């Protein structure tokens, strides 16, 4: 089968469109024919070797965590899915491997694909929407009627975070983005949009229960005056200093500092499917690239300017 792999860490041109063996499945896995995947910044961080301490030096490495596809084989212990099911998933393999024609997917990380979405639209959902959901629901403990600010509202995670904050019944959702994304962020349901090229959101007069810094360009110290005394600041950047701050803030009363580390979850994807099918959640796709052009997809994602998601089409 065709897959995009790396044989060394480096710039987008280390991505090779190659012939590799089809994966063998374990008893709790399914073999999935992948119709679409999508790019997340972690994919190019792995490609660059930024997570070498975790991903090691054994090559080839397959990349890509998001899968939308069709089950073509099931392991002996799989009970919830059968051959022919359309599913979507965020892989739990260390480096991913979804940029491929076939991938092995653990039953526990998959859910049926939302029926109202194409494979491309569904492939944009898993990693980014799980991050938004788990940040706001599990780290922020968002309660109906609370106020939320999302910094980085126009990217892969942010476009889902705005919508998920609304569906968890936040009373006011503020999105921070640049001028060209104001209409997009409003369209996704933000009650207030702050253009970071014109206004410093940390100087706002509003007070929020949750500040979700998706792009990790701020800090709890900078956000202190806009964060409720019992509020939660959440970052997507699991740097050692941030993890230490998170540990320390848990020990003392007052504002909490949380670091999201997204978990693969079929149950959460099943919840998101319901929200999608009732029209409460949509994916925003900026560009799509064929599998053979994964290097161009990475180059674009790395600009940090994507509006929503960058999708990789693998089969039609
Ligand atoms: N820890 C975890 O589990 C986890 C999970 C998912 C993602 N992440 C991390 O979260 C980060 C965001 O991921 P993503 O998928 O949302 O990335 P992305 O899609 O590449 O984000 C791009 C967006 O960021 C916006 N942006 C750039 N600079 C900004 C700034 N200074 N202020 C506000 N917005 C800004 C851009 O809008 P403009 O062009 O308008 O600036 C663009 O729309 C990445 O570092 C990723 O690795 C971590």
Keywords summarizing the entry:
10 helices, binds NADP nicotinamide-adenine-dinucleotide phosphate, alpha/beta, seven-stranded mixed β-sheet, 316 residues, Rossmann fold, Quinone Oxidoreductase, Chain A, domain 1, 2 domains
Please give a quick description of this structure.
The protein has 316 residues and is of the alpha/beta class. It folds into 2 domains: 155 residues, Alpha-Beta Complex (Quinone Oxidoreductase, Chain A, domain 1); 132 residues, 3-Layer(aba) Sandwich (Rossmann fold), CATH 3.40.50.720.
Describe this structure in words.
With 316 residues, the protein is of the alpha/beta class. It folds into 2 domains: 2-125 and 283-313, Medium-chain alcohol dehydrogenases, catalytic domain (Quinone Oxidoreductase, Chain A, domain 1, Alpha-Beta Complex), CATH 3.90.180.10; 128-259, NAD(P)-binding Rossmann-like Domain (Rossmann fold, 3-Layer(aba) Sandwich), CATH 3.40.50. The protein has helices at residues 41-48, 52-55, 119-123, 126-139, 156-167, 182-187, 220-223, 240-251, 266-277, 294-302, and strands spanning 2-6, 16-19, 29-39, 61-62, 66-74, 86-90, 102-106, 110-112, 147-151, 172-177, 192-195, 208-213, 227-235, 256-259, 285-290, 309-313. The strands form 3 sheets. Strands 3, 5, 6, 7, 8, 15 and 16 form a 7-stranded mixed beta sheet that branches. It has a 6-stranded parallel beta sheet with strand order 11-10-9-12-13-14. Strands 2-1-4 form a 3-stranded antiparallel beta sheet, with no helix packed on it. Helix 5 links the parallel strand 9 and strand 10 (172-177). The mean pLDDT is 97. Bound molecules: NADP nicotinamide-adenine-dinucleotide phosphate. The site of NADP nicotinamide-adenine-dinucleotide phosphate has 32 residues, from helix 1, helix 4, helix 5 and strand 10.
């Amino acid at each position: 089968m065709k897959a995009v792999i790396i044989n060394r860490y480096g710039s987008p041109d280390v991505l090779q469109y190659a012939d590799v063996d089809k994966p063998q499945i374990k008893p709790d896995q399914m073999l999935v024919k992948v119709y679409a995947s999508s790019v997340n910044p972690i994919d190019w961080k792995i490609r660059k070797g930024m997570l070498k301490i975790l991903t090691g030096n054994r090559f080839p490495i397959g990349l890509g965590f998001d899968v939308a596809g069709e089950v073509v084989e099931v392991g002996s212990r799989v009970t919830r899915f059968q051959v022919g099911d359309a599913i979507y998933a965020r892989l739990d393999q260390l480096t991913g491997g979804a940029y491929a024609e076939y991938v092995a997917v653990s039953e526990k990380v998959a859910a049926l694909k939302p029926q109202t979405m194409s494979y491309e639209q569904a492939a944009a959902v898993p990693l980014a929407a799980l991050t938004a959901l788990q940040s706001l629901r599990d780290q922020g403990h968002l309660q109906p009627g609370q106020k939320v600010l999302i910094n980085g509202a126009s990217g892969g995670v942010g476009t889902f975070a705005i919508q998920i904050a609304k569906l968890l019944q936040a009373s006011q959702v503020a999105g921070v983005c640049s001028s060209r994304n104001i209409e997009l962020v409003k369209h996704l349901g933000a009650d207030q949009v702050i253009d970071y090229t014109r206004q410093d959101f940390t100087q706002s007069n509003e007070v929020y229960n949750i500040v979700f810094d998706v792009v990790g360009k701020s800090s709890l110290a900078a956000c202190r005056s806009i964060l409720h005394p019992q509020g939660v600041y959440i970052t997507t950047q699991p740097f050692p200093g941030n993890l230490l701050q998170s540990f320390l803030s848990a020990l003392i009363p007052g504002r909490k500092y949380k670091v999201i580390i997204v978990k693969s979850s079929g149950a959460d994807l099943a919840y998101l499917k319901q929200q999608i099918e009732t029209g409460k959640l949509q994916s925003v796709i900026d560009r799509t690239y064929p599998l053979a052009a994964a290097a161009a997809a990475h180059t674009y994602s790395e600009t940090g300017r994507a509006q929503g998601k960058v999708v990789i089409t693998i089969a039609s």
